[in-house]
Amino acid sequence: MSAKRLGIGFVGSGFNARFHMQGLRFVRDADVLGVWSPNQKNAASAARYARELDVGEAKAYKTITDMVADPAIDAIWLNGPNQARIENVEEICDAVTSGKGTLKGIACEKPLARTVAEAKQVIKLVEGAGIMHGYLENQYFAPQVAVGHDLLWRRGAATTGAPYLARAAEEHGGPHAPWFWNGAQQGGGVLNDMMCHSALVVRQLLTPPGKPLSSLAVKRVTGRIASLKWSRAPYAAQLKKSSGVDYTKTPSEDFASVTIEFETPDGHTAIGEATTSWSFVGPGLRLSAELLGPEYSMRWNTLDSGLDLFFSRAVKGKTGEDIVEKQNAEIGQMPVVVNEAIAYGYEAEDRHFVRAFLGKEKPLLTFQDGLDVVRILMHAYKSAELGKTLEYSERGVDKFVPQVAQGTWNPR
């Protein structure tokens, strides 16, 4: 590839990888050239999808090593399932350290890993191979979040003082693939799956633009988890039929809330409140955030989309997700999220990391930020299990594995 363009190879072929491919339609200096999946049929399908989007002449590879070894591949977008993270990273890094291939960068989808120990292993492997890394957190780059964050700090905080309370939530009716529902495979339930978004967003909003997220020190974490819907008998039976997991025996949480107490550089307290749910009932995926300061505030809700459609009972059609991600209905009044890849931040995120790996920008989020998120999530799980607020410690959860991930959690 020319030094002015980045050849991207995807590890993973599912829903998330395809969202990134949609985002890359608007990135001018990158091409999707490869896809690997343990299921070759899925890899071929995703490669065909990339070609149909006209984002590159993608082809399916038989192994990750083959893809890394191809001189056309400059960077890897790591979008495989959580349980395969270490194995995938090991193969990528081995291909580089053994001299089979070279990479300008590796971008990893959230969460970085299932535990702090796994996250540290990922960082050790990637940095040991000398590969630049970026942490893929799309909501950090969502246009409304990024613009609102900048404007409130530039106009409100600059004249009346820093913000003190941020809220964020991600809610829908449940994930796409069976492995998400399996606590042992995924590493938990909705807290591990989606709180990684919301916990980072509240920290982002409370941090001055241009400053590292770590400048806002985490002091205390309070977590709560519950199985509100999917362990009820009729829904547990539905889930067992569709995904092969039995929530009457080994449930994962479908609701989680976390309160994070931060200390600002000038010694003030700031609070982040985050909520995530697989038991939300509404039109579809709802992302939301708020930021409050002494004399200002912001509000973001993706279902306030600016376009609503109404379908009467007489309208018949197939179920789908052509109106909104995780769509839950086909009749009634429905908000339409136009171009979700842009609205949710994938396009801006992908553009940024392409430019970072081409040496044009410094990565805004690295695997260290991903590790910090995992630490917060593990504190939240531990807090929920103990039923008390925890003092935050960077080494306090190094060996911790949530009960949900161990299959021993009892929601009652």
Automatic annotation (TrEMBL):
Q: Which residues form the GFO/IDH/MocA-like oxidoreductase domain?
A: 161-292
Gene3D superfamilies, per the entry: Dihydrodipicolinate Reductase, domain 2 (3.30.360.10), NAD(P)-binding Rossmann-like Domain (3.40.50.720)
User: Which domain of life does the UniProt lineage start with?
Assistant: Bacteria
Alphabetized GO MF terms: nucleotide binding; oxidoreductase activity
Chain ranges of the Gfo/Idh/MocA-like oxidoreductase N-terminal domain = 7-130
- Give the record's keywords alphabetically: Oxidoreductase
Q: Does the keyword Oxidoreductase apply?
A: yes
Which InterPro entries does the annotation name?
A: Gfo/Idh/MocA-like_OxRdtase_N, Gfo/Idh/MocA_oxidrdct_glycsds, GFO_IDH_MocA-like_dom, NAD(P)-bd_dom_sf
The name on file for this protein is Gfo/Idh/MocA family oxidoreductase
